[in-house]
Amino acid sequence: MSLNKFDMIVIGTGPGGEGAAMQAAKEGRRVAVFERYNHIGGGCTHWGTIPSKALRFSIYTAMETLNSPFVKSMGLRPHPSLAMLRASARSIITKQESMRQNFYERNQVPVIRGQARFVDPHTVEIDDGTQYKADNFVIAVGSRPFRPDGVDFNHPKIFDSDTILELNDRPHSITIYGAGVIGCEYASMFRNLGIKVNLVNTREKLLEFLDDEIIDALSYHLRDKGILIRHNEQFARIEGHDDGAVLYLESGKQLKTDIVLWANGRSGNVENLGLENIGLTPNKRGHIKVNEQLQTDVEHIYAAGDVIGYPSLASAAYMQGRAAALHACGCVDRCMKVTDIPTGIYTSPEISSIGQTERELTAAKVPYEVGHSQFKSLARAQITGRTVGMLKILFHRESLEILGVHCFGANAAEIIHIGQAIMKQPPPNNTLDYFINTTFNYPTMAEAYRVAALNGYNRVF
Ligand SMILES: Cc1cc2nc3c(=O)[nH]c(=O)nc-3n(C[C@H](O)[C@H](O)[C@H](O)COP(=O)(O)OP(=O)(O)OC[C@H]3O[C@@H](n4cnc5c(N)ncnc54)[C@H](O)[C@@H]3O)c2cc1C
């Protein structure tokens, strides 16, 4: 077999590409993965999930320490710079990268450096003209921030979610345009640092896909921390000045702050991928259409991760990559459909959910009931002092089947997986009964499930 011929070629080393490459290698296939950036791990490791979550953790720990009565009593008022806070992120990125490098080496998957471009449906070429062939392909090229025409992203006061990671001087104020997950997460982080934040939302509510009660809680807590939120606004233009940047809105409002962060939308990385040579046309956001098996319109070419659009999460991208590889390898009995994806939103407070919302269940006329547990009533939350939060379980009032779990507060993104595990059980093991009849460690945050289940069950008559 030619050195340049593989069973599968994967384009991109983010979670989508890694999931696909590792799964295909485990199935005994000869796989190669292509990466154009000089480090592996994708946007996830270098510009997205990992740096933002590591920065969030640094800010949280720094602020918790600085605000502790003990430190205050010593008269200490240090202001850590963003560069200092980012330093820990740097070491995590390095660890993540070397761990992933190890995965490819151990599984004998060569990482070929360069921009891969389709020449025909079975051949890709890299910058130096070398061509590689395969029976199957997985396109996992990820996405980047969408940049509208007319905004000068080279101006030192105007940032997007990639360039904000290079910010060194701590601004006194920031306007964030776009209140999706990334916008809300950065709004929380900057506010936690004591920076004045304007959050401009193009829609009527924050994160409309969430349960209404959680949306209300998020809006309340962001405002309570001092974030100024503007809904239903559209940007007209952004001007950079020496002393700051001005966001002009179509409504006539003008917001001047030290910097502006553009966080409104992302585009798939489909340029120079040679899609025209294989008969694929992405939509205007650079997304490639796939079917349930993640096949594009060319059946031996799959796509996974941000490049296929919603939900654009690292968690889903990895599973989609694996699902595509399993299908391509003909593992029909183990093929997965990547559905029921939980949300994990690292705002302050943290938010997580799985399953249906009250709005969806009401629209579908499902007879459901709801059980709540407020964190402030849990012993564990009282001990740790992290009392902001709530867990709610939505369940069918006759079968008691769990239909949705929605949570905000400390560790919400971890806690949600307990509910997910029970929801995933086949009937009749996917009901409220598990939480009513199981002994939980005490004191724990998991106890919220028992409290919410009993609270909901008491409403059933
Ligand atoms: C600020 C921020 C915070 C986030 N936080 C979270 C979070 O908390 N949880 C979560 O689940 N998700 C989060 N995400 C989303 C997550 O980062 C993405 O969903 C995930 O990275 C998508 O993975 P991917 O494999 O599709 O693409 P990527 O991770 O972007 O990887 C794509 C790779 O393909 C390479 N590539 C592109 N084109 C080519 C080519 N032609 N040839 C060779 N290589 C190519 C790129 O260089 C890149 O390395 C966040 C995103 C951002 C921006």
Automatic annotation (TrEMBL):
UniProt keyword annotations, A-Z: Cytoplasm, FAD, Flavoprotein, NAD, NADP, Nucleotide-binding, Oxidoreductase
Coarse class of the protein's main subcellular location: cytoplasm
Gene Ontology biological process terms, A to Z: 2-oxoglutarate metabolic process
Keyword hit for Transmembrane: no
Top EC group: oxidoreductase
Cofactor mode of binding and number, as noted: Binds 1 FAD per subunit.
Organism domain of life: Bacteria
GO cellular component, one term: cytosol
Domain (Pyridine nucleotide-disulphide oxidoreductase dimerisation) ranges: 341-452
Places the protein is found: Cytoplasm
Residues reported to bind NAD(+): 178-185, 265
A molecular-function term among this protein's GO annotations: flavin adenine dinucleotide binding
EC number: 1.6.1.1
Ranges where the FAD/NAD(P)-binding domain occurs: 6-321
Binding, FAD: 53, 306
Gene3D superfamilies, sorted: 3.30.390.30, FAD/NAD(P)-binding domain (3.50.50.60)
Purpose: Conversion of NADPH, generated by peripheral catabolic pathways, to NADH, which can enter the respiratory chain for energy generation.
Cited PANTHER family: DISULFIDE OXIDOREDUCTASE, SOLUBLE PYRIDINE NUCLEOTIDE TRANSHYDROGENASE
Similarity comment text for this entry: Belongs to the class-I pyridine nucleotide-disulfide oxidoreductase family.
Protein name, as recorded: Soluble pyridine nucleotide transhydrogenase
Organism, as annotated: Aureliella helgolandensis
